Amino acid sequence: MGVSLMSMMKATRGAISTCFLAAAMTIGFASYKAAISCSYRTAMGSVTETCGYVSDVGFMIVVNASSFVTALIVYLLYRKGVVAEGGIVQSPAIIALSTGMLVSREEAASALPAEILVVILGAVCGFSIVLLCVVWIDTLVRLRTMKLALLVLVLGLTLKEVVYAWACGLSGITFQLFTVGLLLLSAILLFFSNRNRRPVELSQTLEEDKYSFVKSFIALFILVGIVGIIHTTVIGSSAEGVVGQVDMDLAGELSSIAALVITVAMGWNVSTLKVGKVAFPCVLVALSLLPLLGESNGALVGFISIFCYEVYSKVFLAYILCECYRTKCSSLTLSCFFTGGTGGSLAIGLSIGLLLSSFSAGHEVSILALLTVAAIYPIALGTMVLYRRGDGFRFIHKSDGKSEPGQAIQVDESYELETACRSIADESGLTPRELDVLVVLAKGRSAKHIADELCIAENTAWVHIKSIYAKTGAHGKQGLIDLVEEARASTVR
Predict the structure, then answer these.
(1) Are 298 and 330 in contact (CB under 8 A)?
(2) Percentage of residues in the chain with pLDDT exceeding 70?
(3) DSSP alpha helix (H) spans, 266-391
(4) Using CB atoms within 10 A of its CB, is residue 127 exposed (0-12), middle (13-18) or buried (19+)?
(5) Which candidate, 40, 46, 93, places its Cα nearest to that of 63?
(6) 30-54, pLDDT tens digit by residue?
(7) How far, in Å, CA of 211 to CA of 284, rounded?
(8) Helical packing angle, 146-167 and 298-327, nearest 10°
(9) Which residues have C-beta within 8 Å of that of residue 273, sequence separation ≥ 6?
(10) Among 127, 72, 71, CA closest to 99
(11) Average pLDDT over every residue of 208-220
(12) Angstrom distance (rounded) from CA 113 to CA 416
């Protein structure tokens, strides 16, 4: 009796400690994201009005170019062994961003030429965005379970929108001090959260999900570039309302809620490809209707585009976490790809938008028609990338083309495997959860691995496995793998 009571008390203390840790990290993550938004969307507090995401075009281009360069440098240092996984610290970013916010005050800024100030503030902001993203993703990856990390992420993104919307009601030095306060709060909470870090074993290869990674990143970069093109093409023109009249706070709040719902609905096993297959066609249809809707109703197109981008980018962060837990790949690498790629894509998109705006003014071409033509082709390309099954960079470990008994043939293109498993599930009447187990089991994974990946008990995994064997008629793991390979081969033909 005494032992049972002690075990219960120990479990209760552990649960309370986990709740406090999750709450602290959620507040810290929300504070960091809100501070970044305050800095980014107001050009470090030097601009009071924005058009969509854009405060000052020159500042935005410098910020995103700086993000790209910083991410590239950090990644190269990591590859050279100069920087270790988890070796990036937040203090340089906190100091740089806080100093930049205070320097941007009118009295201090007047001592520098406007062009020089824009470059300095933009470079500081871009540098800080990359470092803080790397640090926070690394911290989330080191939480005990993937579900806890995802919960902190999606709740933090939702809370961030509330904090940022409230911060927008402040002005002047109050706004800048509040932003600095958010940075310091996030730094303190991150420091204490890191006391609960767990070691992470890394695998340098993505193996069977490599092609899915590539497709997901390409789609993200295309969508980010389109958002940049839309902004700078219409700014300063009669069609500025396409982004200028969009309720950015509403788009942010709804997208955070949508990301939370999507993450839970997917059983905490996030897939950006599924989200992108909905988001990209929506943006494609909206942009194609832009010339018909006209300038007065263009804000609807702007809202749909921004909302889809927000949802996809937030789900993408959750996807990065899932893959870090599932494949043990480097969180630093994925964070650098995410921040550097989005920064570079947005800088290119903003620059293209400026060229389109200049071309429209010089040749008396309809700005809406020009924007539609320029944006539809990349979006259509992104949609094709998401829906494309690919040639499958198929490779087999054994030189004779045969797999060992009980070992799945590894395929870089996971889409074919998922399609084959879905076909078997439809024919055999598997439940959605049994389908999830089947996809992992077909890779030759053990029940323990399935339980860890899907965040279920090992006994529950065995129940699903036995049910799958019974429904499909497969005799053991190798028999199931052969069945999946036959289904996969028939779908490729």
Answers:
(1) no
(2) 84
(3) 272-288, 290-293, 298-327, 331-363, 367-387
(4) buried
(5) 40
(6) 999 999 998 887 776 666 667 777 7
(7) 24
(8) 150
(9) 212, 215, 216, 219, 386, 415
(10) 127
(11) 75
(12) 57
Instruction: Give ∠ CA 189-191-196 in degrees, rounded to 5.
Output: 95
- Render pLDDT for 395-429 as a digit per residue (tens, 0 to 9): 333 334 444 433 433 434 566 777 788 788 878 87
pLDDT of residue 297 exceeding 90? no
Q: What long-range pairs does 457-464 form, CB within 8 A, spacing at least 24?
A: 461/437, 464/433, 464/434, 464/437
Q: What is the dihedral of CA 251, 269, 157, 32, to 10 degrees?
A: -140
Q: Which residue has the tokens 């602290």?
A: 24
CB 64 within 8 A of CB 225: no
The span from the CA of 208 to the CA of 189, in Å, is 36
DSSP state of 195: G
Asked if 112 contacts 121 with a C-beta cutoff of 8 angstroms, the reply is no
d(CA 373, CA 362): 17
Residue 74's pLDDT is what? 94
For the chain, the average pLDDT equals 80
Question: How many helices (H) does the chain have, and how many strands (E)?
Answer: 20, 0
- The C-alpha atoms of residue 142 and residue 86 are separated, in whole angstroms, by 10
CA–CA gap between residue 270 and residue 263 (Å, rounded): 6
pTM greater than 0.70 (yes/no): yes
Any idea which residue has 């937040």 for tokens? 90
In this prediction, residue 436 carries a pLDDT of 83
Contacts of 368 (CB under 8 A, 6+ apart): 239, 242, 290, 291, 294, 295, 298
Residue 317: closest CA among 157, 454, 129: 157
Are 261 and 158 within 8 A, CB to CB?
no
Count Cβ atoms within 10 A of the Cβ of residue 297 and give its class: 0-12 exposed, 13-18 middle, 19 or more buried. middle
